[in-house]
Amino acid sequence: MKKFAVFASGNGSNFEAIVTRLKEENWDAEVSLLVCDNLEAKVLERAEAFSIPSFAFQPKSYENKPAFERAIIEQLRLHEVELIVLAGYMRLIGDTLLKAYGGKIINIHPSLLPAFPGIDAVGKAYRAGVKVAGITVHYVDEGMDTGPIIAQKAVEIGEGDTLETIEQHIHELEHKHYPSVIKELLGLNSRGEKQ
Ligand code: GAR
């Protein structure tokens, strides 16, 4: 059974989509840990509803980033995590975590990178008047939404689209494709079995 962790900071709709697909398709894998840097985040309730253990922490209560990343690593080892899936984790991964899990951390970003990195990517794309928006799944390095691209999906923006409808399209793309990319990276076949 492959074990992976999801990192999230807020709502957690991607977390929910990943766990739902995994269960529906009976993957030979499990989310063995949710890591969350916001004690108030809705994603913590979602994890509890699925009985998935979570490590929720307040970055401010640690001396610095290496200190809280060491605490995260301890939890990742305890839960035998092989892959880290960032899903709305709004914090740069530091050296400590990168050294321990280099090449095993992926992120989803709501734009066609390298366009519109950072926060409010959908708003930036909308205000730029782009005719095609999209999502990117990529490996994580020390940069902000940089790192080798694994997959991208695009959606056309129509005349009648508003920021809200674009956000909705983007979330639909994320919920559909992120679980598929994770499944492939875990080496599972279309039936969710180990190959
Ligand atoms: C998602 O749209 C994700 O792509 C984005 O945060 C949202 C989280 O939504 N991530 C980034 O912007 C990373 N730079 P969710 O909490 O409902 O899954």
TrEMBL record:
Reaction equation(s) it catalyzes = N(1)-(5-phospho-beta-D-ribosyl)glycinamide + (6R)-10-formyltetrahydrofolate = N(2)-formyl-N(1)-(5-phospho-beta-D-ribosyl)glycinamide + (6S)-5,6,7,8-tetrahydrofolate + H(+)
Catalytic residues in the record: 109
Q: Which domain of life is it from?
A: Bacteria
Pathways per UniProt: Purine metabolism; IMP biosynthesis via de novo pathway; N(2)-formyl-N(1)-(5-phospho-D-ribosyl)glycinamide from N(1)-(5-phospho-D-ribosyl)glycinamide (10-formyl THF route): step 1/1
Pfam families (alphabetical)? Formyl_trans_N
Against InterPro entries, the record matches this protein to: Formyl_transf_N, Formyl_transf_N_sf, GART, GART_AS
Alphabetically sorted, this entry's keywords are: Purine biosynthesis, Transferase
Question: What's the Enzyme Commission number for this chain?
Answer: 2.1.2.2
Q: What class of enzyme is it?
A: transferase
Extract the CDD domains matched here.
FMT_core_GART
Q: Which GO terms describe its molecular function?
A: phosphoribosylglycinamide formyltransferase activity
Family annotation (Gene3D superfamilies): Formyl transferase, N-terminal domain (3.40.50.170)
> What positions are marked as the site Raises pKa of active site His?
145
Query: Can you tell me which residues bind (6R)-10-formyltetrahydrofolate?
Result: 65, 90-93, 107
- The Formyl transferase N-terminal domain is annotated at 2-182
Record keyword Phosphoprotein present: no
Presence of keyword Metal-binding? no
Question: Which positions are annotated as binding N(1)-(5-phospho-beta-D-ribosyl)glycinamide?
Answer: 12-14
Its annotated function is as follows: Catalyzes the transfer of a formyl group from 10-formyltetrahydrofolate to 5-phospho-ribosyl-glycinamide (GAR), producing 5-phospho-ribosyl-N-formylglycinamide (FGAR) and tetrahydrofolate.
Q: Which family does it belong to?
A: Belongs to the GART family.
In its UniProt entry, what is this protein called? Phosphoribosylglycinamide formyltransferase
Query: What is the originating organism of this protein?
Result: Bacillus atrophaeus (strain 1942)
- Organism lineage string: Bacteria, Bacillati, Bacillota, Bacilli, Bacillales
